[in-house]
Amino acid sequence: MPGRIVASYGQRGVLEAGDGTKRRYVLKGRRLKAVCGDVVKWTEQKDSPEALVTSVSERSNALERPGSSGNAELIAANLARLLVVLAPAPEPDFFIADRYLCSAELMGANGIVIWNKTDISPDIPDKIMEYQDLGYDMLAMSCETSEGLGKLESILGDGISMLVGQSGVGKSSLINTLVANADAAIGELSEASREGRHTTTASYMHELKAGGKLIDSPGVREFAPVIRDVQQVQAGFREIIRLADQCKFSNCQHLREPDCAVKEALRQGGISSRRYESYKRLCNSVTTLLKQGH
Ligand SMILES: Nc1nc2c(ncn2[C@@H]2O[C@H](COP(=O)(O)OP(=O)(O)OP(=O)(O)O)[C@@H](O)[C@H]2O)c(=O)[nH]1
Ligand SMILES: [Mg+2]
Ligand SMILES: [Zn+2]
């Protein structure tokens, strides 16, 4: 029978069966891997109420990060959108936002920037507006006043979307405002540091009343896309890949090469120095990983 993974904890988790009911499952065999968003086949077991997942369908895309063993670790699959949530508190970490947007580009999901908590800070900072200038859809909203919620629902109308970002930006609060009875746990920011408390510990996929599915995920301190070739990093930065064919060298990495269109645009203010810094840092970390033999 067909099903869709709603939550996964290693070999076990929760799936949604074809009739909409939720069931606990266990994977058949150690080699199978399933994450939120995966489409699976499952059967009943004679001696257990758990569904037995026997296969995972081919994924249209997957969000991954480098795992501890050097292998890629799957986070979620079959995503139409990656919603990168930022807020006035905790203070935005733009490297994390850029890296998620880089992943969105590389996996072929639509990257969308959400500026939450407009009740605290109604004006969107210039650094956030830069994302809109790059052509990313951007939405300002508040879980307190419900500003922007209707627009968000219309964006999420079909397919699977996933909320990502730092701890404390309001991902679970947003789930609770959009999904009746979601009951997602919400954590106060710490008094001293104004950082989130890492309240959500596992991803969970919710059904939206207005259509579409939305995954709540644990906040991160850092994130990196899985990239095995430095040349590939530029494909995750739309303003850089756009200029790349104007560089003198076709394999230009836009770091130290002469006659580089990207460096020229940087000098003239055509691309943001902060975004370029993100690009450089990601290139460096990919080079380091490659040297370590991953
Ligand atoms: N003022 C205001 N506070 C908000 C808003 N949205 C969320 N918060 C608060 O921000 C804090 C963190 O919210 P969470 O929803 O737990 O954040 P999260 O992103 O799920 O955090 P993790 O699960 O730790 O990754 C809570 O105190 C919320 O009440 C908002 O729109 N306005
Ligand atoms: Mg949360
Ligand atoms: Zn170049």
What does this entry look like structurally?
It is built from 8 helices and 13 strands. The chain is of the alpha/beta class and 294 residues long. The chain folds into 3 domains: 2-56, Nucleic acid-binding proteins (OB fold (Dihydrolipoamide Acetyltransferase, E2P), Beta Barrel), CATH 2.40.50.140; 67-216, 3-Layer(aba) Sandwich (Rossmann fold); 230-291, Probable gtpase engc, domain 3 (Ribonucleotide Reductase Protein R1, domain 1), CATH 1.10.40. The strands form 3 sheets. Strands 10-9-8-11-13-12 form a 6-stranded mixed sheet, with helices on both faces. Helix 1 (94-107) crosses helix 8 (273-291). The longest helix has 19 residues, at 273-291. The protein is globular and about 70 Å long. 37% of the residues are buried. The structure holds guanosine-5'-triphosphate, magnesium ion and zinc ion. Guanosine-5'-triphosphate is lined by residues 116-117, 119-120, 142-144, 167-173, 186-189, 196-200, 218-219.
The average pLDDT value, as a whole number, equals 94
- Tell me which CATH architecture of the largest domain applies here: 3-Layer(aba) Sandwich
CATH superfamily of the largest domain: P-loop containing nucleotide triphosphate hydrolases
Output the CATH class name of the largest domain: Alpha Beta
Termini distance?
A: 38 Å
Hetero ligands: guanosine-5'-triphosphate, magnesium ion, zinc ion
Estimate nothing, just give the exact number of structural domains. Answer: 3
> Globular, elongated, flat, extended or rod-shaped: what is the shape?
globular
CATH topology name of the largest domain:
Rossmann fold
Structural class: alpha/beta
Radius of gyration: 20 Å
Residue windows where pLDDT falls under 50 for at least 5 positions = none
Measured as a percent range, the helix fraction is: 10-25%
Please indicate the percent range of residues in DSSP E strands (runs of 2 or more).
Answer: 25-35%
H and E string: EEEEEEEEHEHEHEHEEHHHH
